[in-house]
């Protein structure tokens, strides 16, 4: 049943010991080799007894599993897993499957993840409940009250009968806490908030939100994790005043009056419900109306419409993509930013695009002025740096509310000798490449590193964390920035380079660190300080060095490298037909020198550094 696949052509068997006091929940598992650090995979730590589907299949015929339990399985091509479970009358069973949660995106599979389905059969072989998702989450959930004692069979397969080695799953089964409804979905920073929760097997009907200063805007709490629970409750913490929607507010005449700025906590409480709010605006005032719901696991697919006092529509939005939410493939929250055309009252209409509704369809409606800000992502989350050398990373800026400033990147509390090349994300640029360098003489090791971005918002200097992420592809096309728990740097040993071009020794550097300006259609010279001879290469001349330019502005090329009295002079040119006036980038200049290995052998290797 195996199929050839380059992504899963190799296998490593690990034995993992989990400390009794280990933190519960998702952890990151990476492999370290002499060549460096791998990308992370999700490894979960829980409290339920665990069994493997293959062990059950290879055990005695008719083997039955007692509850509660955590089932581990793998679906190979065309396979359907069936597991027999003993259940008692009156049990409120929760079946929570994690598959896409473990491996969010597959680049070479449609729809881009293992799309698991679950079905439960009663002792007579009748299907009693089935699911292939939970609301908008591709991982299914079954909620079922057992009507009679007996042995029930759980069936797991791929929705379209695919299968391969990375189609793995974990299913928590039992009378486990599971939250289905939360209200409100957040609160004001520093203000105690008690939310009402509903669901299955809940030990309490309320949940206290942590609204303290630590943590971001969107926060998560693993509810009931110490009981084997499988609910992540998401909530938001904001700085604005808060209010609660009051029914009836279904039309223009019943619109709820609110004071700008404000966050309104509400629900689309029934199918077809429309919530209407009225606020006073001024001509030229820039306002933002934003719904935060799907990003907090609400099933609401919001639509926002703004109209003036005459009934004229001035703003409309259904879905607005938030690139920070790399795990949400159906971005269904609405966002409108506009300048009001005149003084007077304005109405905000909020509804569900599918005309659905219910107690779970909660939202947070922001009515506020634009608050420019920026979020930062670094790719990849694991960086491999040879001793005494450097490695390139990419930092992407995700602007909010029209942010258009420069962002300077700096290492925070870095170990001695580790540096980050001077890197700035210029205003209007989406990303920049930077280089992390490790000093000579340090041992091989893996260490966490923190980077932050510093920028000016209005008159205030602020810093924002650079969140490590993996750039993942879904189904041959779409790409997502998936946040990871930490940025790790692996210092590796010196690499043998079999090709003709080898990295240079230290001593090659730019003579001047100030920004380089190139006239459109013209050239500029850049001085590179370097020793006349390379000490570890004998009498190798500077003329044998090859320079290359990467991460350059469009249309900028390296035209010439000539030896001068104190080093090398590089000539950069901006093509008048392809370069853009005002374009800015963090250019990286790489230098390499021909080794004594001989060009024929090197060319046969087909590689260079």
Description:
- With 609 residues, the protein is mainly β.
- The protein has two helices and 49 strands.
- Strands 31, 33, 34, 35, 36, 37, 39, 40 and 41 form a nine-stranded mixed beta sheet that branches.
- Mean pLDDT is 89; it is low at 496-505, 536-540 and 597-609.
What Rg is obtained from the alpha carbons, in whole angstroms? 29 Å
Q: Count all strands and give the number.
A: 49
- The end-to-end distance, rounded to whole angstroms, is 41 Å
Average pLDDT rating: 89
| Number of helices, counting only DSSP H or I runs of 4 residues or more | 2
Task: Report the uncertain regions.
Answer: 496-505, 536-540, 597-609
Helix content: under 10%
Assign an overall shape: globular
Strand-residue proportion = over 45%
Structural class: mainly beta
The description of the largest β-sheet is:
9 strands, mixed
Tell me briefly what this model is.
By secondary structure, the protein is mostly beta strands. It contains 2 helices and 49 strands.
List the helices and strands and how they pair.
Blueprint: E1 25-29, E2 32-33, E3 36-37, E4 41-45, E5 50-52, H1 53-57, E6 64-65, E7 69-74, E8 81-87, E9 92-98, E10 116-121, E11 127-131, E12 141-145, E13 150-158, E14 168-174, E15 178-183, E16 186-188, E17 193-200, E18 206-209, E19 218-223, E20 231-238, E21 242-244, E22 256-257, E23 262-267, E24 274-281, E25 286-292, E26 302-308, E27 313-317, E28 335-339, E29 344-352, E30 362-369, E31 373-379, E32 382-386, E33 390-400, E34 407-412, E35 419-420, E36 423-425, E37 431-437, E38 445-448, E39 450-457, E40 460-474, E41 478-483, E42 488-492, E43 501-503, E44 509-510, E45 523-529, E46 545-550, E47 556-564, E48 567-574, E49 588-594, H2 599-605
Parallel strand pairs: 5-7, 6-8, 16-20, 21-23, 22-24, 31-40, 32-42
Antiparallel strand pairs: 1-4, 2-3, 7-14, 8-13, 9-12, 9-14, 10-11, 10-13, 15-17, 17-18, 19-20, 23-30, 24-29, 25-28, 25-30, 26-27, 26-29, 31-33, 33-37, 34-36, 34-39, 35-37, 38-42, 39-40, 40-41, 43-49, 44-45, 45-48, 46-49, 47-48
């Amino acid at each position: 049943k195996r199929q050839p696949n380059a992504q899963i052509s190799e296998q490593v068997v690990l034995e993992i010991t989990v400390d009794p006091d280990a933190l519960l929940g998702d952890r990151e598992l990476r492999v370290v080799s002499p060549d460096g650090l791998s990308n992370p995979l999700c490894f979960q730590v829980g409290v339920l007894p665990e069994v493997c589907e293959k062990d059950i299949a290879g055990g005695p015929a008719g083997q039955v599993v007692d509850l509660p339990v955590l089932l581990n399985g793998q679906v190979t091509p065309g396979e359907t897993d069936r597991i027999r479970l003993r259940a008692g009358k009156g049990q409120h069973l929760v079946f929570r499957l994690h598959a896409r949660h473990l491996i969010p995106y597959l680049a070479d599979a449609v729809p881009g993840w293992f799309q698991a389905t679950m079905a439960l059969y009663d002792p007579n072989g009748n299907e009693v409940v089935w699911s292939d998702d939970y609301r908008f989450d591709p991982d299914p959930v079954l909620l079922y009250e057992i009507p009679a004692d007996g042995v029930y069979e759980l069936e797991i397969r791929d929705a379209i009968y695919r299968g391969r080695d990375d189609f793995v799953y974990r299913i928590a089964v039992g009378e486990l806490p599971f939250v289905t409804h939360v209200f409100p979905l957040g609160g004001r920073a520093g203000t105690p908030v008690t939310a009402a929760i509903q669901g299955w097997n809940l030990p309490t009907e309320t949940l206290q939100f942590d609204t303290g200063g630590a943590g971001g805007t969107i926060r998560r709490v693993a509810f009931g994790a110490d009981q084997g629970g499988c609910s992540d409750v998401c909530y938001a913490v904001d700085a604005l005043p808060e209010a609660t929607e009051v029914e009836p507010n279904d039309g223009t005449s019943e619109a709820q009056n609110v004071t700008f700025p404000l966050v309104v906590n509400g629900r689309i409480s029934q199918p077809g419900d429309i919530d209407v709010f009225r606020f006073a605006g001024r001509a030229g005032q820039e306002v933002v109306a934003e719904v935060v719901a799907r990003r907090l696991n609400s099933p609401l697919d919001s639509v926002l419409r703004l109209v003036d006092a005459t009934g004229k529509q001035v703003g409309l939005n259904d879905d607005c993509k938030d690139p920070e939410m790399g795990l949400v493939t159906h971005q269904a929250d609405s966002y409108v930013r506009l300048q009001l055309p005149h003084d007077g009252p304005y109405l905000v209409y909020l509804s569900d695009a599918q005309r659905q509704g219910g107690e779970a369809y909660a939202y947070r409606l922001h009515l506020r002025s634009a608050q420019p800000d920026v979020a930062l992502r670094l790719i990849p989350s694991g960086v491999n740096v040879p001793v005494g050398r450097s490695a390139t990373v990419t930092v992407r800026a995700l602007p909010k509310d029209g942010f258009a400033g420069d962002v300077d990147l700096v290492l925070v509390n870095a170990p001695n000798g580790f540096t980050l090349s001077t890197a700035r994300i210029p205003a209007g640029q989406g990303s920049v490449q930077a280089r992390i360098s490790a000093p000579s003489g340090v041992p091989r090791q893996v260490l966490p590193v923190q980077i932050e971005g510093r920028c000016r918002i209005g008159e205030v200097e602020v810093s924002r964390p650079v969140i490590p992420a993996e750039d993942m592809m879904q189904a041959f096309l779409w790409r997502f920035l998936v946040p990871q728990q930490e940025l790790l740097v692996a210092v590796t040993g010196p690499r043998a380079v079999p090709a003709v071009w080898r990295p240079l020794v230290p001593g090659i550097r730019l003579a001047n660190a100030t920004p380089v300006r190139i006239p459109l259609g013209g050239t500029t010279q850049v001085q590179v300080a370097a020793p006349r001879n390379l000490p570890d290469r004998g009498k190798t001349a500077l003329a044998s060095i090859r320079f290359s330019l990467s991460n350059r502005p469009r249309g900028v090329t390296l035209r010439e490298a000539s030896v001068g009295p104190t080093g090398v002079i590089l000539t950069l040119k901006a093509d008048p037909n392809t370069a853009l006036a005002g374009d800015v980038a963090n250019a990286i200049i790489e230098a390499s020198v021909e080794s004594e290995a001989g060009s024929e052998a090197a060319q046969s290797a087909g590689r260079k550094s």
